Amino acid sequence: MNYIIGAFKPPCDISITFSDARTRKQVSVKKDNGKTTMVPVFQSLETISGEVSIAPVPGKRIEHTGVKIELLGQIELYFDRGNFYDFTSLVRELDIPGEIYERKTFPFEFSTVEMPYESYNGTNVRLRYILKVTIGRNYVGNIVEYRDFCVRNYSPVPTINNSIKMEVGIEDCLHIEFEYSKSKYHLNDVIIGKIYFLLVRIKIKNMELEIRRRESTGSGSNTYVETETLAKFELMDGAPVRGESIPVRLFLTPYELTPTYRNINNKFSVKYYLNLVLVDEEDRRYFKQQEITMYRLLESPPAS
Amino acid sequence: MAAASAAVRMLPDGGADDEERWLAEGIAGVQQNAFYMHRALDSNNLKDALKYSAQMLSELRTSRLSPHKYYELYMRAFDEMKKLEMFFREETRRGSCSVVDLYELVQHAGNVLPRLYLLCTVGSVYIKSKEAPAKDVLKDLVEMCRGIQHPLRGLFLRSYLSQISRDKLPDIGSEYEGDAESINDAVEFVLQNFIEMNKLWVRMQHQGPVREKEKRGKERNELRDLVGKNLHVLSQIEGVDLDMYKETVLPRILEQVVNCKDDLAQFYLMDCIIQVFPDEYHLQTLETLLSAFPQLQPSVDIKTVLSQLMDRLSNYAASSPEVLPEFLQVEAFAKFSSAIGKVIEAQPDMPVVGAVTLYVSLLTFTLRVHPDRLDYVDQVLGACVKKLSGKAKLEDSRATKQIVALLSAPLEKYSNIVTALELSNYPRVMDYLDNATTKVMAVVIIQSIMKNTTCISTSDKIESLFDLIKGLIKDMDGAQDDELDEEDFKEEQNSVARLIHMLHNDDPEEMLKILCTVQKHILQGGPKRLTFTVPSLVFSALKLVRRLQGQDGDVTGEDVPATPKKIFQILHQTIEALSCVPSPELALRLYLQCAEAANDCDLEPVAYEFFTQAFILYEEEIADSKAQITAIHLIIGTLQRMNIFGVENRDTLTHKTTGYSAKLLKKPDQCRAVYACSHLFWTDDQDGIMDGERVLLCLKRALRIANAAQQMASATRGSSGSVTLFIEILNKYLYFFEKGIPQITNTVIQDLIELIRTEKQSDNSVADPSTEAFFSSTLRYIEFQKQKGGSIGEKYEQIKTSS
């Protein structure tokens, strides 16, 4: 068995390890095959260093035209599968052409890499960062090995963060005023607010607050918009009367949110909305959608 | 068509079954999730515990159950939540999860109802941990619970909140007590929960189809204790002292009660307030409390609630006399009185019975709290009159009943009608009763007088008394006499007659006035009543006459108004009234009584007049022979005792009497009357008449009649029974013989005895044992007297008793 499998295996094992792999924070990401793996997290302007170890299958030698490692930032649009747009591409030559007989390690370092965009795995688009090791060969295909890593960029607490306050309604039918304490939330924030009923002439069954993600990809006529409801949070049960005010307190932690991405490399945008939905007894839905800005707040103060 | 209608009928029937099924499903859901929850609890799996408990609580989101069934489901979940709470407490104590984190964690639940149940549960643990002030947690919980706007679910959720927070209020002396202000927070929390619950409860009435309105009312009634429980909690808070109650608690509650504008809630909550808070508080906040009543919905049964309050306070007053000054201090009566006035004003549609019930309660209150304030009582009655004024007599039987209660209350309390008579509004209230009830009331009044042997001693009071009982004294306008029960009528009139005897004053002058008053009233009574009432009046007057006679010397002067003469004039009028009845026998008796009294007063003309009247009656009115016999004997008896008549008058009267006697229809009666007349000529008085001649004459005449009677008897029937008459006459002879009338000699007696013997032995006489016995005992008497000796014995010596 091993023999047969060995026939299709690449002639060597390539492993890419980060130098601070033990201490670096890792997050789980979902891979194409649905499995989740843990990947290290970096942020922009960090130095990414480590080493590449190439171990030929015993008894074989690898003849190559050079070994290089690339750091790639790619945007992959699913409707345009196979085409990657590299917005970042850095290369380090690891070895001059020659032969490898035995395990050989090459240290590498990309210092203060600019990685303006965060890794993102959406419905129609994926933004990812990879380290790609290529052993160039003639006649036969190159041997390539990838190593994913994740980039997360933190934002400071916004200086301006107004509340969202609005009166909406259907004439002579329903008038409500809602207020969310902020318009910008960090990922573990709490949405605090209240809904005040000014006029109720319909028989309301319940009210819920949805968090929706709107992902638009492409541009011009090729824009694809995908909206996904990430959270349905029931705020109220039963029919209120005029003058009632219903509290809102929604913790964002349980939902897998990302920061808002606006026009990433002219390829895609991800926006978040709060959608307040009132359902009447005939299951008609009345809603009002408000955009909120999500940002990533540094979870713990950076060690200086 | 038929099938369709059958299907329609089927629907409501299926309702109950469906509900049972839904409940069963709900319970199964709770049990199943509880099972998984337990497993999670056992393995300390917080995440699963939260998941399954939320699922379990989701069963409570149902809208299909009636309150009753929903309660059943709720209780199942409630039991499970207690276990969860214990787990949470353990979890935080172990430190595996901080209570703050837990408090956030449960809020991740997507559905609002399970989320809030969990939040309350963790909140309870949070307070217990004292990591945050109790007031902050409570405030957060009570705010967050606004998320449930469905009445039934909201009520139960808030009731859960109330339940778990009860022992954790930052009350004074509680371990959760914070700073000085924390008691306010405790009260504020309960009040807010109460207000929200009441809103939900009221809202329940207005949601859903109109046709199920009644059903909803019933269902709401089942839920009312959930709301009322909050008031109970408030009353249990140590820190709620009188000041706090006065300044915060009561005004806030009342504001909610008034503003909710729901009759069911208003009725229940007012009642609740009265029941749960101490009497002392009510007394001190009476004004505030009462001011709420006029603002309630017109359909609220205020009378019951207000009566309850008054009952409670009067019980409170009765329980300890030392609280009475407080009642005076807060002017409880005035406040109640004005509140009732306002309530009645505010509820123009309130039935009369309601208003009257209120007055009854107020009156009871007054009588118990201010027994000495008769003016209050009168004020109540006056207010009642005012309410009733402008209306016709009451038709509503319940209202009538209440009026009777209203009127009876002072009687019972004071057990003295005299007090009631001072109430100027008393009779005015009575005016609104229908005739039958007026009578009942009058009887009650009289019975009260009898029971307490109250003596009413001024004519003014009697005037008002008769005003009260006028239903018995005279025919009321439009009264239907035919419905009258004869027995009842007699009973009533007898009581009036008894009443007359209770009217008494030691001062003759006043007594005379009383008599005049009574006379004035009873003469209006009409023929049916007079026979009952007149004798009472007559004898009452005669009693006065006798009393005057007792103090003879002082009062016979002309200037004293209360002379016997005057009384006799009254009597004369009174008895004369009987002629219209007509009741000649009674009038005759009364005349004779009066004559006798006049005799004792030495008023010859008066006595003569009475006799004349008696004779006229005898001649003109008494036709029945039996009645005649009775009457003639009465006349003879009375006349015999008269000693003031001059010879001429006496002759006239005796002559008439004898004449009437001889004209009786039946011979034996004639005979007996005539021999009775003999007494008229022989009196034992010192200066009495002693006319032996005429005595003998009468007796002889009697004998003749007896003889004639016997002959008549033997002629018509062939037998004679009239030996008895002879024996009776013999006895008369013996009587006068003993009296020593010279004309009666032993020879005459001897002859008579012989005559009787002969008659007895005659052929056609029938042996009658009683006659025989009568005769032999008469003879024995003679023998006895002989043996006794003495002067009488000697006289008898001559008479032979044996043949």
Percent of sequence in beta strands of chain B: under 5%
Give the CA-based shape of chain B: elongated
Largest interface: A-B, 22 and 22 residues
Indicate the low-confidence ranges of chain A by residue numbers: none
> Could you tell me the mean pLDDT of chain A?
89
The average pLDDT value of chain B, as a whole number, equals: 82
N-to-C series of helices and strands of chain A: HEEEEEEEEEEEEEEEEEEEEEE
What class do helices, strands and sheet pairing of chain A give?
Answer: mainly beta
Structural class of chain B, please? mainly alpha
Name the CATH class of the largest domain in chain A. Mainly Beta
What would you call the shape of chain A? elongated
First-residue to last-residue Cα separation of chain B: 117 Å
**Main sheet specs of chain A:** 7 strands, mixed
Approximate helicity band of chain A: under 10%
Number of strand segments of chain B: 0
Specify the helix fraction band of chain B.
Answer: over 70%
Low-confidence stretches of chain B: 1-13
Quaternary organisation of the protein chains: heterodimer
Give the amount of beta strand of chain A, in percent: over 45%
GO biological process, one term (chain A): intracellular protein transport
Main location (chain A): cytoplasm
Family (chain A): Belongs to the VPS26 family.
Pfam family, one (chain A): Vps26
